[in-house]
Every structure is written in structure tokens, then in C-alpha cells.
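Supplementary Data S3. Sequence and C-alpha cells for construct A.
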Amino acid sequence: MKRDIKKILVTGALGQIGTELVTALRNKYGIENVIASDLRPNPSNRVAQEGPYEVLDVTKSDDIRRTIIKYDIDTIFHLAAILSAVGERDPHLCWNVNMNGTINVLDMGVRYELARVIVPSSIAVWGFGVPKYDVPQESVLKPSSMYGVTKVAGELLCDYYVNKFGLDCRGLRYPGIISSETLPGGGTTDYAVEIFYEAVKHNYYNCFLRSDTELPMMYMPDCIKATIDLAEANFENLKHHSDFNVASMTFTPQILADEIRKTLPDFKIDYNPDYRQKIADSWPASIDDSSARDEWNWNPAFNLSTMTKDMLEKLSAKHKAGLI
């Protein structure tokens, strides 16, 4: 039986996705009903200023328990995580935050009989050996990064809690996410955000991936839509739970640069691949998301052209106003 979402906790709320997810959830469910949380005390981030905010370390179960009790939480969007590039610099930290944080959230979900827990995953679950194009929902998971290892383990852990404890736990594999509102936090697909900021500010970008590196991407409004749509879907309709493929668009740095030049014809780009190239090479170029489309009617709204136009318009306005 479907239980309504009433009081929401978002972990990792000051991150790239968390900031915009909190805003969207507050617009939908009310400001006081969505509690943002992160590690930083007294942050200037708008989501911490505009509504309830808690300093919360997901590796400490007492922090999660205290917040659930204080606000009578029934739903958790668990976004707190160490991403791929940062995770390669400190694999032990990545494991600690991503795995211990996730199992703490799931344990609290069972203990307090939460309505649902949403734990996003990532394309980082894949590695060498999967098809380059249209990777199916059911596929080999052999990640090449510690971040990917934790996401595979997280998917399996969430499904275990569904089957063992009856916890309503859901997750979707994010591709690279592009946002005009918040800078990314150390991922391999970050170039696809940085390139817009640098194009608007300097008309030049030094890319850390090869020009022909093809990766699946998604614009932030679609990312938020997918996350909330999955959270609101009828649990009975879901054959999968914690590992939904979601797709939107696929491109290379060169293709994106060419699209930017349609608006900024003098834009220049150089390519100097670093350690992130190896991670990117292990990921697929495109994803088959038919399960998400069939089970909860997923459908993206943006493509490369409409996303690029919207990003450049928003960032150009911010640059003109001295905000970036």
C-alpha cells in the first residue's frame, strides 16, 4: 500500500543535486516539511537559509536518529556521498561515507518504519566489459573506481533491505548531471558543467577528458524530475527497486563545444586528459532505460540543444550580474 510523503529529510543537501532537489521538494511539499542536512555548520547556501537545516554526519547513526525523531521524518532522500574523482584520492573516506552512511540510513528506515528511502546510484557501477551503447538494465557490474564499488554495494544493500525487512527503498543510476545553479563536487563528468562556466566567463576551456569521450548526461531539471517521479511511484508497480537506469542524452566534449559555438562562435577548447580519463573510458556511452519508462513512466524533457541554450542563457545572466 502506498504511503504519503509528509516529512522529508535530504542528506547531502548542499551538494550539486541536493541543493536543487531540496528547492523542488519544498515547492511541492512545503518549506517546513523538507529538512536539508549536511556536514557544514552555518552555511551560506540558500537551502540552509530558506528552511529547516540540520548539521548531520551520515556516518553517525545518532545524528540520523536524532533528526528523524526531531522532525517526525517519514521519507529520506539519501544524497550524501563522496564522488568518483574525490573517491580515487581517498578511497577509505569514500567507502566510509558511502557505505556506512547508507547502511545507517537504511537501519534507521527499518527502525522507525519510514514510508520510503531513496538512495541514488550512478553510471559508475559499470566498468570495462559492458556494452558501449544501450547498456541494459540487467548487466555486468564491474566498476573501475571506489565510488563505483560503493554504488554497486549500495544497490545490493538496498535490495537486501527491501527483501529482508520490507523497507520501501528506491534508487536510480544517475548519468553525468549538468546544472546552472550549483557547481559539481568532484565527479568524472564535471567537465560538462565547467565548460559552460568557462565559456561564459573566458570563452575558453581546458578539458580534462579527450575530445571523443562519449558519456551519458542529463540536465538537472530532468534529474530532479526523475528522482521525485520515482519517489512518488506506486511501489507495487516496481519490478526493480534500487538500480533503475535513467537516460537523457549522450555527447562528447567536442560535440558539446560545437553546440556552445552556435551561441558563442569564438569559444575555444583544449584537451589535456588526466587521471579521470581512465574512469570515463570504463563507462558506457549510452543507457537503455526502458525499465524506468515502463515501470514509472520516466521521460526526459531536455535534449542537447535545449539544455545548452538554457544553460548559456542562465549563466550569461549571472555573469552579467557579477554572480559568477
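Construct B, processed identically:
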Amino acid sequence: MIRWRRHLHRNPELSFREHNTVAFVAEVLKKEGIEVRENVARLTPEAKGTGLIALVRGEASSSDRCFALRGDMDALPITEIGKPDYCSTNPGVMHACGHDAHTAMVLGAGIALHRLREQWAGNVMLVFQPGEEKEPGGASLMVKEGVLNDPKPSGIAGQHVTPELPVGKLGFRSGAFMAAADELYITVKGKGGHAASRHAHVDPILIMARLLPALYDEAARIKPETEPMVLSFGKVIANGATNIVPDVVTIDGTLRTFNEDLRNSLHELLPRKSKEIAQAMGGDVDFQLVKGSPVVKNDPELTARLRAVAVGLVGAENVVDMDIRMGAEDFAYYTHVMPGCFYRLGTGNPSKPGTTAGLHRAEFDIDEDALAIGAGMMAWGAACELA
């Protein structure tokens, strides 16, 4: 698994471009004699899908039961720092979220189960998914294409490396775990020109400066006091100069919620309020809202069973309760069509460089001792679900 993970780490690919990655996964599985279904999770009917489904069949007795294990494969547009032995060779692209490890661990779990197939019955579906980091989310395409229906799993498990948890620990939460996430793209339209002629302008920068705090205030105003919600804007482009007022300003942001009623209310409020403010100042707004993944809903019964497996694997003292997280995860799509459990795998170790760096950071790394724990958790958890 270390060898697989480092190969993937050296050769990262962005969302929905994981052609070499999925070819590598298919090669490893086929060498073991595991049947695979390629060309799934297609962005368009004409595109080649960069997802893969593999089926591991137990031989202890005849059973059509099935349980699924998910690994995501895409990387991020980040320039890596460090790791001289296995640093990214793809400039500006990096596995900064641990998907290389997720893929290696699902491979490890699947191959372990395949080699022990005479000891268990049923089927384990290995779901190698593209595009977790980019809408529309590879999981949504997997669900839409129906590739998880033959055979239909009774449930699905996924895991995520977590640097704030020490290696050796596993973290669980029942019920709502991770937020729904939507992308916001705002174009503020005005009338620019020479900076010395302010009387002739409809200044989109000034509109933007009034718009953002107003949106923050309005979102906070309608949010119930105890309801978690995040509205953040991380990109503003006003492509003018010291003596040029631009015609447009673009603003990109995100909305994170746990409550669908609040989510829908904000979907109506934010575009309307933006247009009101811009038009009152003589401008206008184009507001594009891209609805993303829903809330990750961990099935209470499945989560309790997998938590018990974790206790047997690493000991009760190493199984911890997780709080809700405002981060999003397209694993959510699976949890809305079947029982799912998404849990956290500790990968932090202060004695190993990079392993306590946060996700999506250029120096991010994992303690590779976690690979055996994560793969073992998945393999044993699936076997227990099929017992």
C-alpha cells in the first residue's frame, strides 16, 4: 500500500482527469483476478468516465449480499512542498487531501478480502470514484448512472485521513456529520473608466464593498441561533488599475448549511439582496448558485456497528467522537440512497514532517502507518457487515 500510495502521490491528476490513476487501479486489481467495470462516472455521454467499480466475491457459501467501500482518486491544483522521495511530478497538482491514501487503502482492503475469499460469503464492491473535489461530484455521477445497483449494496463505508487525529485513532459521528455545500459566483456589473472621472462611473468596486457585508449580515439575520452555517467569499477580482475603474468585479464564495429549509431560504435571499443593492447604486448583478453535495448523513445503526469493529481493531481508547464539520464531502450522495458511514482516520504524527499540516496545504502528508489501520478497518468492517 505504501508503494501504491507513493506512486499515486508522484502522479496526481485533477478532478475528472484521472485517466492514468484509474488505469493504474485497474491494472492492480486485474493482476489479482478481481473483476472490474471501467468507464463509469462520465461527465457527458461522450466523455470517457474516470471511475471504476470492482467486485470481490466471497466463496465461503452462496450469498448475494453486498457491501460497498469507497475511495476517491482526484488531486488538487496545489504546488507541493517537501517529500523528496515521492513529491508530485505533475507541476501545480498535488494529493493534498489524501485521496492517494484513500485509493491505496481501498485497494488494500479489496485485495486482502480477495485473498481470504474462502473465509467469507457475499460481495464487496470497491468504488473508485473521480471528482470529489469538483462539482458535480463524482459520487453524484456514480449514483445517477446506477453503477452501484448490480448488485445493490446494503450499505457503504468511506473514510478520510485526518491530520488533527493522531495515527492509530479512528473518529465516528452518527447522524448529520458534514455540511451541504454550494458554490456562489457573483458578477457585479457597473460602468468603468478613468479613475479621475468618478462622476461618470457606476463603480462596481464600491458596489462590491457594500454588497459583501450586507450579504454576511442578511445571512446571519435569518439563521436560527443554534443552526450552524458558513457564508464565505474567497476570491474577488477587480481587474482595473490605479487609474482605471473596471466595468465588472467577480466574486466567488461558498455556502455551507446543515438545514435544508435554511439552505433554500438563503438560495432565494442572497441573489435577491445582491440585485437590490447593485441596482440601488446604478449597477446590476449576475448571481450564479451551483448547488453542491447535500449533508453527509451517517446511518446510526451502520455507524454503531462499524464503531464496534473499530473498537475491536484499535481499542476503545483509540475510538473517538467527532463533532460536526463545516467541510463538505460528496460521499453524501451515497448516504441519501443507502445507509452510509463516513468516518475519520488519524494520520498525524508530530515526529514525522508534514503529517500534522492541514488538508489542502502544500506541505500536507500522512503517517503511512495509518494505511494498515484504514485498510484493516475497511476489510474487517465489510466482512462483519456480510456475516
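The mean pLDDT is 97. The chain has two domains: 2-178+295-386, 180-291.
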